[in-house]
From TrEMBL, chain A:
<protein>
    <submittedName>
        <fullName>Ferredoxin</fullName>
    </submittedName>
</protein>
<dbReference type="GO" id="GO:0046872">
    <property type="term" value="F:metal ion binding"/>
</dbReference>
<dbReference type="InterPro" id="IPR017900">
    <property type="entry name" value="4Fe4S_Fe_S_CS"/>
</dbReference>
<keyword id="KW-0479">Metal-binding</keyword>
<keyword id="KW-0411">Iron-sulfur</keyword>
<keyword id="KW-0408">Iron</keyword>
<dbReference type="Pfam" id="PF00037">
    <property type="entry name" value="Fer4"/>
</dbReference>
<dbReference type="InterPro" id="IPR017896">
    <property type="entry name" value="4Fe4S_Fe-S-bd"/>
</dbReference>
<dbReference type="GO" id="GO:0051536">
    <property type="term" value="F:iron-sulfur cluster binding"/>
</dbReference>
<feature type="domain" description="4Fe-4S ferredoxin-type">
    <location>
        <begin position="31"/>
        <end position="61"/>
    </location>
</feature>
<feature type="domain" description="4Fe-4S ferredoxin-type">
    <location>
        <begin position="2"/>
        <end position="30"/>
    </location>
</feature>
Amino acid sequence: MIELVIDERCSGCNSCVEICPTNVLEIGTGNSPFIARQNDCQTCFMCELYCADDAIYVGPDCDRPVPVEKQAILASGLLGELRRHHGWDEWAIDSRYTNEHWQMEKVFLRARDTIFPTQSQET
Amino acid sequence: MDEPGTGIDLGKSAYTCGVLQFLEGRKGITQYRALRGPEYMRALRKLVDSLGVTVLDHSPALELLQNSDGLVSGARGIRRQKGGDWQVHAGAVVLATGGTSFLSRPLGSHTNTGDGYIMAAEAGAELSGMEFTSYYTVAPVHSTMTRSMSYAFATYYDEDGAVIPMPSGPDTMRPLARAMLKGRVFCDLHRTPEDIRAKVPVISPNFMLPFRRWGIDPYNDRFEVTLHGEGTIRGIGGLRIVGGDCRTSVPGLFASGDAATRELVAGAISGGGNINSAWAVSSGQWAGQGAARYAKEHKAISGGQPIGQAGLRPSAAANNVDLAATLSAIQNEVLPYDKNIFRSGERLEQSRTILEGVWTEFRSHAAGSSGTCLRTRETAAMLATARWCVASALARDESRGMHQREDRPEIDPHFNRRIIVGGLGKVWTGRDHEPRLELAS
Ligand SMILES: Cc1cc2nc3c(=O)[nH]c(=O)nc-3n(C[C@H](O)[C@H](O)[C@H](O)COP(=O)(O)OP(=O)(O)OC[C@H]3O[C@@H](n4cnc5c(N)ncnc54)[C@H](O)[C@@H]3O)c2cc1C
Ligand code: SF4
Ligand code: SF4
């Protein structure tokens, strides 16, 4: 579930408010939006992907809020990782993060051929 | 799909608009397959915006409008960020609201509450294939990460650390569910080759994210796993399609993607792993073209009346129906492995009785207020959908595909038919005797 909107990183663009499918965030009176309905969070990480300033942290636990220390998260290197691995925004030109989703099919074939002779092809 | 004058070839337009970047594989070969969700959604949105389409974000539909001749002629809903309502009178309506997994937590499925099913049923439409709703996807416990590629290399362990043997066939879901009915199940991915481990983040950028945040190394550490029910998301039931343009049996009403049945393309098996997304894009084009043609022939009609019932207009005095308790009651009949994966006529009958009771109470009294109106309506949709699933599973008195009845373990040729289901006050089932519908390619 979403745990943090980090004020000092946030530019106030409100893309997260717009993109969140379950309307968790709300435009605040100050600079940054606030987490208005944490319990509605579906742990989809879309707000992180759409936050160009890497100011959002979504915890991996989807069943309950697990509060985190802001300073620890800032130091963790986890902020912005999803956007980077997606090759999103400024990362689009970095060849280390080129979208290789099409390789998925090959991974299944490798698994089928090397481990399970007839593995399913669900993604 | 290049029929001139009837619509847009989405793939080509997206490409020429420069919004969808296809990927280049080795040797510079362009890869047109395997589009990643967020990238594809972003591209489609850019395309829609570039065409000047009006999009109302954060504006869920609550109900359809229907005129006295039975034609669907618009829809109505709320604007949850801007406030207030919206109502559109239209020559035709396409339902593209997705399926429902009864909020069981597959990644990104919390707005999939089956709203299109109940809206269409209120207009008189029926559904098909609702018994094929027993597919589950593995994920780490407490996580939504139902991305299953890496589990092709998984080793599963029981609570004592013994390896759970997996059959060599494709079905790992059923043995996993059996093991989970006995106790907790753990997993590691140590058999994943090093070169694939290195590629996982650029193939599925979110897969490692929960592990990294929990400090788990899935290639070496054992972590507990669960199975999330997929309902009609990776299951395949949905609104019955009666024409190549994805029309439903109700004039003016069309359906696409997970809102529609995918029996036409998947049969009795899961539509996950390509079929579903191919169907969503194709059926969206067919339905869009069909609806546009229909609207052209039937000039936009005003005077349609909102027809929503359960959760919007209670049949008796409105009072506080506990939404969370209602949702648990629904989930408790359609998600437990011993009720939905390993089915039996007797247990299905019990579920039917329980769900009828919940429905009677909900239909009579539930009415949302401003903050709860969407959730109330969504709950009504999931409740109606659960009843159709159970009724269809009872009506298919055999085992076939993902629908496996322990009391009827064989395929019965009498059931080489689709099971049709519908009705709100009283749920009915029937069999499709229409000639097999062949969709145009
Ligand atoms: C984790 C995961 C991975 C998957 N991977 C694959 C895969 O690799 N290959 C594959 O083929 N399939 C896959 N599937 C299935 C595939 O995602 C779906 O079949 C597909 O997204 C269906 O598209 P759709 O547009 O019909 O529905 P959705 O994508 O569910 O979209 C429905 C939309 O309608 C909106 N909506 C709902 N109710 C209302 C309302 N009342 N008013 C207005 N809007 C509403 C929702 O917010 C949502 O935006 C996967 C599913 C999951 C959960
Ligand atoms: S997307 Fe990021 S920068 Fe923009 S408002 Fe949200 S938190 Fe702030
Ligand atoms: S993780 Fe998804 S549901 Fe949760 S706040 Fe972010 S965008 Fe919204």
